[in-house]
Design brief:
By secondary structure, this protein is α/β, with parallel strands linked by helices. It has three domains: 152 residues, 3-Layer(aba) Sandwich (Rossmann fold); 197 residues, Nitrogenase molybdenum iron protein domain (Rossmann fold); 33 residues, no CATH class. It is 44% helix and 16% strand. It contains 17 helices and 14 strands. The strands form three sheets. It has a six-stranded parallel beta sheet with strand order 1-11-10-9-12-13, sandwiched between helices. It has a five-stranded parallel beta sheet with strand order 6-5-4-7-8, sandwiched between helices. It has a three-stranded antiparallel beta sheet with strand order 2-3-14, with no helix packed on it. Helix 6 runs parallel beside helix 7 and helix 8 runs parallel beside helix 9. The longest helix is centred in the N-terminal third of the chain and has 19 residues. The protein is globular. 42% of the residues are buried.
């Protein structure tokens, strides 16, 4: 059997499932110290530290002068791509931009009869750094990650956006990353990877200016670096391994569901792929499909390990119990592979992105439809949301109280201040009544 088979009848069954999945969190605490040392090194030594780490791990002939990618190399990459691929990239960018335009927030103001004005001013951060993993040897570039992070920052009207990605062995960057940057209108691209790239974006070096927000996925070293920098810079989120849950009834296609589960399993041995279904027959058929489809995948070993450790087919007595379990799982991606998916949508409280019906597979959201694919994992969707335009803005409250307002409310404000033992606060208001 390629994955676990579980029966869930009520919340009494949740503890064992929760305990099983909790072990997906990376237990390697040794990374913390390594990353802390890297951050300190880059903060002190800047470009020379970046070059040293890059020589050690990515490109043996790398020098500090190679960190910034020349503008002409970015422009030239567009010419190197097939026209059909460029057209697909342009359409994907347009779809994602259109979706995120709807997320823009406006500053707002209210005015009282006494002349008091209260409001909220929305402004973008000054500078954003986007980390883009290079993929296996730089040959599987995560171009979708660049698009998904850059577009909401652009819609937020961030004035400066820097891209950073590890170089290939020959010191170049995959032309698909460069061309995508060009199509997005981005002209600042740097070569560096792992925790030292994150450190450069946070602290700044001679070549790379410090950023206010850092976004983009990466390995445990990247994620740990971002986590250690919380409070010094903004980050998108602390993302764990990918996951998908599917709620399905007997109208679902077993072959399709297996393919959807494998779309996550091939990411990472820690990825979780879970089918929740009311149909035992469907569950058996999906297990059979998983076995045959996994064998045919280029990344079969990764997918097989993921399914063996973190894959499951869970049978539930009805869809309401299934929805209860989905809300406990709080998955990054949720597919409602149901005869009437819309009737169940209102019962879903915790899911990062929800894919409706039999013809909305998860990769549609990963690459093309428009919503952001940077999503909370490891059940953090219970209290957090997808990357959005809001990630790259900050909000300032504006208070302009009138003389009448202060005169009318000074005593009440002063009383509240004195209850907290803050006499100077009280006097600050009272002196304006004289």
């Amino acid at each position: 059997m390629p994955c676990k088979t579980i029966t869930y009848s009520s919340k009494a069954d949740w503890a064992s499932i929760d305990g099983w999945l909790a072990a997906r969190k990376d237990p390697d605490t040794n990374v913390d110290g390594i990353v802390r040392d890297i951050l300190a090194d880059v903060r002190k030594n800047g470009d020379s530290a970046i070059a040293r780490y890059t020589v050690q791990f990515d490109c043996e002939n790398f020098q500090s002068s190679n960190i910034r990618v020349p503008a002409e190399a970015i422009r030239a990459a567009v010419e190197a791509l097939p026209a059909d691929d460029l057209a697909i990239l342009k359409e994907s960018i347009a779809n994602i931009r259109k979706f995120h335009e709807n997320q823009k927030e406006k500053s707002w103001w209210t005015t009282a009869e006494d002349g008091t004005i209260l409001g909220q001013m929305v402004r973008p951060v000054d500078r954003v750094g986007l980390y883009v993993p290079g993929g296996q040897g730089g040959e599987t570039p995560l171009i979708s990650s660049l698009i998904m992070n850059a577009v909401p920052a652009q819609v937020a009207e961030v004035p400066e956006i820097a891209v950073i990605s590890p170089p290939r062995k020959d010191g170049t960057l995959n032309p698909y990353i460069l061309a995508t940057a060009a199509l997005l209108g981005l002209s600042e691209v740097h070569l560096a990877g792992s925790a030292w790239a994150i450190a450069a974006l946070a602290y700044g070096t001679k070549t790379i200016a410090a950023c206010d927000v850092i976004a983009g996925p990466g390995n445990i070293f990247v994620a740990t670096a971002k986590a250690q920098l919380i409070g010094q810079v903004g980050i998108d989120m602390f993302a764990g391994p990918s996951e998908i849950a599917i709620l399905a009834d007997d109208s679902a296609n077993a072959s399709w569901l297996a393919a959807d589960m494998l779309s996550q399993a091939e990411h990472d041995p820690l990825a979780a792929s879970i089918l929740v279904t009311t149909s035992h027959k469907l569950g058996v058929a999906v297990c059979k499909e998983l076995k045959s489809q996994t064998a045919a995948l280029p990344r079969s070993e990764i997918a097989r390990k993921s399914l063996e450790d973190w894959g499951a087919v869970i049978t539930v007595p009805d869809l309401n119990i299934g929805a209860e379990l989905i809300n406990l799982l709080a998955p990054e991606h949720l597919e409602l592979a149901l005869d009437d998916a819309w009737s169940m949508l209102g019962k879903i409280r915790h899911a990062g992105a929800i894919f409706m019906g039999h013809h909305s597979p998860e990769p549609v959201g990963d690459y093309f439809a428009g919503p952001n694919h940077v999503l909370p994992t490891l059940r953090t969707v219970r209290f957090s949301s997808a990357l959005s335009v809001e990630t790259f803005v900050k909000k300032s409250s504006v208070i302009a109280t009138s003389p009448d307002y202060v005169h009318e409310n000074a005593d009440k404000i002063a009383r509240l201040a004195r209850l907290e033992g803050l006499e100077a606060h009280a006097r600050s208001v009272e002196c304006r009544k004289k």
